[in-house]
Amino acid sequence: METDVFGKALLDYLNGDYSEDITTYSSLDEEDTIPIPYLFRGYIKMPKIEQKALDLCRGKVLDIGCGAGSHSLYLQEKGLEVTALDHSVNAIEACGLRGIKNTVRSAILDYKGQKYDTLLLLMNGIGIVGRLELLKTYLEHFKTLMGKNAQILLDSSDIIYMFEEEETEEDWDETHNSGDMTTDENEYYGEVDFTMTYKGASSNSFPWLYLDYTTLEHAASECQLHCELIKEGEHYDYLARLTFM
To answer: What is the per-residue burial (b if ≥16 Cβ within 10 Å, else e) of 139-153?
Structure first.
């Protein structure tokens, strides 16, 4: 089983071997497609939320889960000092081929010792948390990478709309935001498991988190971080900024 089908697709595209897109299968019983060319888009073709996030980047930037490196490349061309980080060997190779100067191949929780002015997590970048119970662990780790006046810029989507007759967001707020954010009896609705396929190869199943803003705000507060809603998109998505209190 090929685990890094995403990274392989990126390298194929750069090497002129683009013939199909990535297909994803989720625990929501949905099949979707990730168009490979979209991952190499420039600033002008990015959603408004991503453009806004890039406009707000300042100082030394860590692009977490950089993928093909499109955000890093744009920021580098603007003159910012940016480091592109991804756990995928092939994604990091793709970033190097595109001319990104500073790259790191690492899982974010294993990355230590540096301080940044901006931590950037785009394309539902906070999804790397996987499970809601790990959110505060990640936020506390992010704090160790933040300089004195640093910011975290992240986007996500509230997928409550996909559950027509199941638990509503209001129900979730009433039962979960008073303390523990998960229970054995009722998993958070934004926890989704994915598998990717590409050119006959399949990835291992991996967890991904879609996070509503209220839950993010509660978790940030518990980690002594101020959470600010910067921009809302047209598809239940939003951009948030986290800073030290």
So the answer is: beebbebbeeebbbb
Does the pLDDT at position 231 exceed 90? yes
Q: Specify whether the CB–CB gap between 46 and 29 falls below 8 A.
A: no
- 3-state secondary structure at position 69: coil
Task: Return the closest-CA partner of residue 177 out of 166, 188, 185.
Answer: 188
Task: Give the pTM.
Answer: 0.91
Q: Which of 114, 176, 181, 122 is nearest to 141 (CA)?
A: 114
228 token code pair? 């600010």
**What are the two backbone dihedrals, phi and then psi, of residue 229, each rounded to the nearest 5 degrees?**
-80, 115
| Cα 130 to Cα 190: distance, rounded to the nearest angstrom | 9
Of 3.40.50.150, 3.10.20.30, 2.60.120.10, 3.40.50.2300, the CATH number of 45-195+206-244 is 3.40.50.150
- At residue 64, the 3 state secondary structure works out as strand
Rg (CA), the chain: 18
Residue 164: which pLDDT band, with cuts at 50, 70 and 90? low
Determine whether 14 is exposed, middle or buried from the number of CB atoms within 10 Å of its CB (0-12, 13-18, 19+): middle
Tokens of 51: 């453009």
Q: Any bridge partners for residue 207, and if so which?
A: 193
